[in-house]
Amino acid sequence: MTGQGIAQIVVYLLVLVGLGYPLGLYMARVYAPAFRVRWLGGVENGFYRLVRAERSREQDWKSYSKSVLVFSILFFGLLYAIQRLQGQLFLNPDHLPGVQSHIALNTTASFVTNTNWQYYGGEYTMSYLSQMAGLAVQQFVSAGVGMAVLAAVIRGLSRRSSQELGNFWVDLYRSLTYILLPLALLLGLILLSQGVPQTFAGHATAHTLEGTVQTIARGPVALMIAIKQLGTNGGGFYNSNSAVPFENPNGLTNFLEVVSILLIPAAQVFMFGKMVLARRHAWMVFSAMFVVFVVGIAIALPSEQHGSQVLRSSGVNITQGHGQSGGNMSDKEVRFGIANTALWATATTEASNGSVDGGHDALTSYGGAVPLVNMFFGEVIFGGVGSGLYGMFFYIVIAVFIAGLMVGRTPEYLGKKIEARQIKYAAIGALFVPTMVLIMAAVSVVTKSGLESIFNPGAHGFTEALYAYTSQSNNNGSAFAGYGATSFSASFGTVALILGRFAPLLAALALAGSLAGKKVAPVSAGTFRTDGPTFVVLLVGVIILTAGLMIFPALTLGPIVEGLSH
Amino acid sequence: MLRDLRSSAIAVVVLTLVFGLAIPALFTGFAQVAFSSQADGSLIKVNGQVVGSRLAAQAFTKPKYFHERPSATAPPYNAGATTFANLGPTNPDLAKNVRKAALAVLRLERPYNPGLRIGDIPVDAVTTSGSGIDPAVSPAYAQLQARRVAAVRHLPLGTVQQLISDNTDGRSLGFLGEPAVNVLELNLALDRQAA
Fold first, then answer.
1. Which of A47, A127, A372, B66 lies at a 20 to 30 A Cα distance from B125?
2. How far is CA B144 from the centre of its chain?
3. What are the beta bridge partners of residue B181?
4. Residue of A nearest to B185 (CA)
5. What is the three-class DSSP state of A317?
């Protein structure tokens, strides 16, 4: 670890805040009912007419949820069909056959839920049509759905004595057109200029200097990679994701891609502060996220620089300096080195992004434990676009509740009384997924069909299985990629993907719906203040107590026992 | 319910047509005009024939060339099927592979570099890359290979070292990423030198 590596990380954090803050304020404006862009107003109205949505007709939480679910289910059908039929369809210059049914099903669930877990290698499995008109569309849309739901949840927190949370079609359209698309075009353009391909021509064939023939996969990559990074999707065009030079050619693209992972989630915290008129509180939420982020990096980076057991005992030179970055270079790229790969691994699991610029299976024991724990927290440290912050609300409600118990009065959040019903929704939201992960990981390591997926021997193999279900259930998508696709793991994973997306999503909408109808109580001397450092400490404590303690026993069986061995 | 179904069905079609076909098609059209070389995969042509891409490693086995990092793809350096090796930090197979790679480096370089010990080998020389087609080696690994290439090609060591430095991509904007030596471009530069 050098000053240079730390400097890159500090600059990263500064840029994240510097870009996230103004973007958040802009996004708050976009979701306001009165928002209009004069020269695009006609297009917007045209869309509402097409889908027969009445802009002014707002929905309560049940109606909003229904629109989300029906919309997601229909898209599910289309995406599955495209993959299965790609062999007969256009934009398939390399003549790839239809995708196998269990892989297509898992992939469909994976992309509709904003997860992008990949049991396939993109460049040799998916036609350009599947990548571009199937998967990449979901990368826009599933992100848009998450952002829409967050906007609705925030309205629930800010409104008084109301039942309505907003109109799903309006929130979806605005997330897509006024936030995701312009950012994706801008990032796509920069990536393209740096060498990320964008073509409809099939693979290139090269005759190498030593006389062999090399196949070079390419396609419509740049725009997909842009939205993959911005929409906390993570599903790459290539199997090795952003480790592949065609997705991520140099230090600049790597920096922009890793900024993009957390940009919208960080902006959403500031957006929230503006929408509920509680900016100081938003800064405290941001601080809590920031603290956990820095702790994660502070563990992952030195661990990777220290190197793996195998490399340390191999005798080769793993010391940083003299023309190399040293450390654990297994499954890492030279142009990124240790600092950038550790930063990426931490960021991608704090958001529900799951893209990688190096292989996670080859991370050191503790370097790999950081992403695992990040995901297990429910990806609330900035988190997925939308899903991160609405996931954080569960913890916030629980934190406020615990504070209320300590002083012996009914807890309030943003002036609204937190009662049994809200606690129930928050508890479901916070505990459903971790419980499911532990059960699924347990089943997958005690059944014969589950064990077939494991690639590495020993404790690391257990970590692979735990990681797989943590990642899919929390809609992350990164992998200890040795964990293999079988019809069992793909189907089991499909269940994790779907429940992991929609259980918390519905709990968040229900929580918001139940809060929207409440009156706002005036602040008194006994009100627990959510805009000071005490709140940050309490919030981080609650995250560690609820999710942290749940995963700790499993951690001891996986990364910790591995880390202690030689 | 029926209302949601109808709205969703239309939205699914409209969004797929716009975000899945129209926008990518326009973007691709623009890319082909404005950045045609990058858009097609940064291919390198020699005498009109494609010899590779500056963004993909290719197999080098001859002693007159700089060699790439190990690759986990099948066959190695397959730019049509990228992959990690996925071997965990305590996996005995990883230990075996690293040992094998280190011995191969020693065997190849020692004739030109008699004092070479295993502790002189930089870690990227014996580890697989993330993509399997990492187009670069660390400056340290390039320096280690320089004596061999210079000797085989009967070039002064200084010339080879100069070519290494010419083909090193520094950190972007001076501080982002790590310095990396592009092996294909370096080898092409050597061939040009000879010609």
1. A372
2. 18
3. B137, B168
4. A209
5. strand
Is B24–A132 a contact, with Cβ atoms under 8 angstroms apart?
A: yes
Q: Structural domain boundaries of chain B? A: 1-40, 43-194
**Tokens read off for A25:** 């304020």
Nearest CA among B64, A20, B69 for reference residue B56? B69
Q: Rounded to two decimals, what is the model's pTM?
A: 0.96
Asked if residue A170 is part of any domain, the answer here is no
Residue A170 to residue A163: CA distance in whole angstroms: 17
Shortest Cα distance, chain B CAs vs residue A211, angstroms: 9
Q: How many domains does chain A have?
A: 1
Domain range holding A548?
385-564
Q: Please indicate if any CB of chain B lies within 8 Å of the CB of A334.
A: yes
Asked if A166 contacts A405 with a C-beta cutoff of 8 angstroms, the reply is no
Provide the pairing of β-strand B136-137 with B180-182: antiparallel
Out of A70, A208, A313, name the one closest to residue B4 (CB): A70
- Rg of chain B over Cα atoms, rounded to whole angstroms, equals 22
Say whether A52 and B3 touch across the interface (CB within 8 A). yes
Sign of the alpha-carbon dihedral angle for A344, A348, A353, A359:
positive
Tokens at B190, concatenated: 């050597």
- Angle A251-275/A279-306 helices, nearest 10 degrees? 150
Each residue's pLDDT, cut to its tens digit, for chain A (566 residues) gives 567 788 888 999 999 999 999 999 999 999 998 899 988 999 999 999 999 998 889 999 999 999 999 999 999 999 999 999 999 999 999 999 999 999 999 999 999 999 999 999 999 999 999 999 999 999 999 999 999 999 999 999 998 888 899 999 999 999 999 999 999 999 999 999 999 999 999 999 999 999 999 999 999 999 999 999 999 999 999 999 999 999 999 999 999 999 999 999 999 999 999 999 999 999 999 999 999 999 999 999 999 999 999 999 999 999 999 999 999 999 999 999 999 999 999 999 998 899 999 999 999 999 999 999 999 998 888 888 888 899 999 999 999 999 988 888 889 999 999 999 999 999 999 999 999 999 999 999 999 999 999 999 999 999 999 999 999 999 999 999 999 999 999 999 999 999 999 999 999 999 999 999 898 888 877 788 899 999 999 999 999 999 999 999 999 999 999 999 87
Q: Which helix (H) or strand (E) holds A417?
A: strand A416-417
Nearest-angstrom CA–CA distance, A506 and A68: 10
Task: Please indicate whether, in this complex, the C-beta atoms of A11 and B80 are within 8 angstroms of each other.
Answer: no
Length of chain A: 566
For B92, the 3-state DSSP assignment is: helix
- Asked if B134 reaches chain A (Cβ–Cβ under 8 Å), the answer is yes
Q: Answer whether residue A430 is part of any domain.
A: yes
The answer to whether residue A451 sits within a structural domain is: yes
Query: Does a cis peptide bond (omega within 30 degrees of 0) precede residue A197?
Result: no
Q: Which two tokens stand for residue A278?
A: 């509680």
User: How large is the ipTM?
Assistant: 0.97
Rounded distance between C-alpha atoms, residue A160 and residue A425, angstroms: 19
